Amino acid sequence: MVVDVEGIIRCIRHRDDSGVHNQLQEFNREYAQCFFFDTEERDKRNQRKMEEFRKNKVRDCRDSDSDCDEKDQEDRGLLLRQSLAVVLVRFIRTGVHCRLLRVALRTLRILSRDKRILGPFLTDNALLTLAKLAGLSTSDANDDVSDPDSDFFDNIICSLAEVKAPMCRGYRHNTEVNDQNEECSAFEDDANSDVSATNCSDLDSISCSRSHRPSINETHRGSIHQKELERGRKDRRESKMDGDDEEDGASGEEVAKKEALKVLCNVVYNSTWAQERFSALRLICGLKERLSSGISCPASSSVQFYELRLTFLTTALRPELSTQLQQEGGVSILSAALEGYLEVQWKEQYECVLDPAAQPISLETSQRIIEILKILFNVTHRAHRQAPSEADAALYRHLVAILRLCMTRKCMLPEDTDELQGHTVNLLSALPLQCLDVLLMVPLELDSEQCQGVNMDCVHTLLLFMERRLEAGDKAKEKLTPILSLLTESCRAHKETRHYIRKYILPPLRDVSQKPEEGCTLKSRLIRLMTHLDTDLKHCAADFIFVLCKENVRRFVKYTGYGNAAGLLATRGLLGGPASRTSCSDTLYSSDSDSDTEEYRQVKDRINLVTGRVEREQTDHMEGMTEEEKEEEAKSLIRLFNKLSRDNIIQPMGVDADGKLVPMAGLRENSLTEESASDTDEIENGSNQ
Predict the structure, then answer these.
(1) Whether pLDDT at 81 is above 80
(2) Of 21-35, 304-318, 499-513, 675-689, where does mean pLDDT reach its minimum?
(3) Whole-number Cα distances in Å, 521 to 221, 264, 470, 524
(4) Which of 137, 258, 274, 440 could form a disulfide with 131 if both were Cys (CB 3.0 to 4.6 A apart)?
(5) Where are the domains of the chain?
(6) Which letter does DSSP use for residue 35 in this model?
(7) In which band, very low, low, confident or very high, does the pLDDT at 192 lie, cut at 50, 70 and 90?
(8) What would the DSSP string read from start to end of 82-97?
(9) What is the pTM of this model?
């Protein structure tokens, strides 16, 4: 570590606030966008060096001392950061002026990115101190908050002095070896080529860049390697760099609160113990109070974003905290916050005013709304399969009306709009199904999408959202499963929704010259998902199409082909059984018919049920063979299948009495058992006669 940690500690000991401020600022500038390699990254780096050494066939001119020196360097750097964290946690508890406090908290935020040095942050005293600075608690730490005595600083400085001497000796030794072995430069990878990607735990930044320009402090062999973080979505939330002392319209107290919240976010995210202590200290109550007080002034400062981010982390990582927040009125508090950010105007009890001329949602506001939606998902996702009480049902319907507005509003950037709608869909899929009727309880207007007199504007928006997700293609399971589940359940519950979506996705069949999965239509893309490698996504897509066919097997096979439908039919035990068994659902569907088009009726008899299309006429490969030759060909095929079965290359399957696929061996055993039982019954009946 290049920054003089010992000098910082001496300045703190002598209460040299100016010196502390300057040196901490230097530390923050140097490491503002850096992350320290963990043990796994160090091992990977050493492995790459060894592979490079072997590839270039460089003579073994270096022993293991260099690797040990590098490991010692990193261990010493780790001790330096730990010592700095210990001192700063004590320092901010003694009461320092606001300007110095902000700089110290920024240093702690950088240090809290490293999982290996979180010890000083994990005590109750440290957590309560940070919570108090963040405005989440008024409790003081239990131990003495006066200045530490001289022994405290002397012990720290003494321990640093013990590692400083071997560090210098190790560096001089490495320098001499480098001078004497210039031919080993292929084995030496300096910071220029050490660009392994690491996962960033600091929530200020999202992704890591693949390369960076090393500073002057990284150029020597054995330095502590860092990874520069690519500035991502954080830039869109904040207009200033982290190193700036002043922010637009933000007081010093607000900046300090924000920095303390960032430290808590990092610590809670990186440490299970911190999550447990956060729960035990009931700091969620302070967060709830902050959220409640922020409803009256929802656009005051970026502090609120990090309050929401910390609430999301705690409710996601500690289920009991999401339950506690729900029991203490979290849904109503967060719904009110949504209303404030969206500037909702109510027309009826469950109807918001949709102003087509409304300004796009700003970048900062959209990020806060997204955090609220994520928290609400954590709080409400257990209610999906439960019958809500009357009071809860009214609360959820009120929330659904606001979510309908979220689906229609636009953000300044298209990707923000897509993200907002994605989290809205996730939350809608978590709410009780009977409360989603609010999406349809909107009067028709001149330009409204409608079906049987019901407003389908929101359903149409959901369909367009699903179509965009299908076209995107990346992260298919994560992005498609919620919307497919939501539309499937909505179609089961509301016949108007099912009828409208079916006309949009499964129009009457006319052209059956292509396989159902071929083409670029919405139907063909969904049918392709029915054979996807991911089981959950495959079943979601198949279930959606099955419900659109009113869970009728004949109709389902007609639209998808037996080959695509086989997976769902096998899962539900519909591959065989009585011919009259065409549906397996308790849902009462309407009796609207599925009339065939004239084009379909003309080619219906020539459609291959497996592929779902009209196949070209195939030549008979057995034409001209005698009966003996055909019989020999059949025996040859049987021998081949038997060989493949014995070698466990294939496993012959059959359909049992319940319509499910089972191994043929099991079918044979069951058949023999049934025959044996039948023979026994006949013998017993005969003897009785």
Answers:
(1) yes
(2) 675-689
(3) 58, 48, 11, 5
(4) 137
(5) 5-199+208-233, 282-439, 447-618, 640-669
(6) E
(7) very low
(8) HHHHHHHHHHHTT---
(9) 0.77
Closest to 490 in 3D by CA, of 571, 400, 584, 422: 400
SS3 call for 615: coil
More confident residue, 80 or 327: 327
Residue 546 amino acid letter: F
Helix (H) or strand (E) segment spanning residue 207 = strand 207-208
List pLDDT tens digits, range 436-456.
999 999 999 888 899 989 999
DSSP secondary structure letters along 565-587 = HHHHHHHTT-SSS-TT--B----
* pLDDT tens digits along 578-589: 443 444 566 767
| E strand segments, 303-410 | 346-348, 351-352
Task: For residues 503-512, give the mean pLDDT.
Answer: 89
How does pLDDT run across 128-143, given as a tens digit for each residue?
Answer: 999 999 999 876 655 4
Identity of residue 104: A
Per DSSP bridges, beta strands 653-655 and 661-663 are antiparallel
Q: One-letter amino acid identity for 8?
A: I
Contact 426, 482 (CB under 8 A): yes
Question: Tokens representing 218?
Answer: 């990284």
Q: Angle at Cα 329 formed by Cα 325 and Cα 335, nearest 5°? A: 100
Closest by alpha carbon to 310, among 143, 135, 471?
135
* Rounded-to-integer distance, Cα 422 and Cα 479, Å: 8
- b/e string for 152-189 if b means 16 or more Cβ within 10 A? ebeebbeebeebeeebeebbeebeebbeebeebeebbb
Residue from 376, 368, 484 nearest 431 by CA: 376
Q: Can you tell me the distance from the alpha carbon of 491 to that of 476, in angstroms, rounded to the nearest whole number?
A: 22
What distances in angstroms separate CA 106 from CA 30, 114, 137, 252, 269, one per listed residue?
A: 12, 14, 20, 13, 17
- What's the token pair of residue 490? 């909505």
Contact yes or no for 435/441 (Cβ under 8 A):
no
Distance linking the first and last C-alpha atoms of the chain:
100
* C-beta contacts of 168-177 below 8 A and 24+ residues apart: 170/69, 170/72, 170/73, 170/222, 171/73, 171/220, 171/222, 173/65, 173/69, 174/66, 174/69, 174/221, 174/222, 175/220, 175/221, 177/62, 177/66
**Residue 447, pLDDT score:** 86
Token pair recorded at residue 296: 């009256």
- Binned at pLDDT 50, 70 and 90, residue 461 comes out as very high
How far apart (Å, rounded) are the C-alpha atoms in residues 39 and 190? 18
512-528: pLDDT as tens digits: 888 999 989 999 999 99
134 Cβ neighbours under 8 A, 6+ residues apart: 257, 260, 261, 264, 307
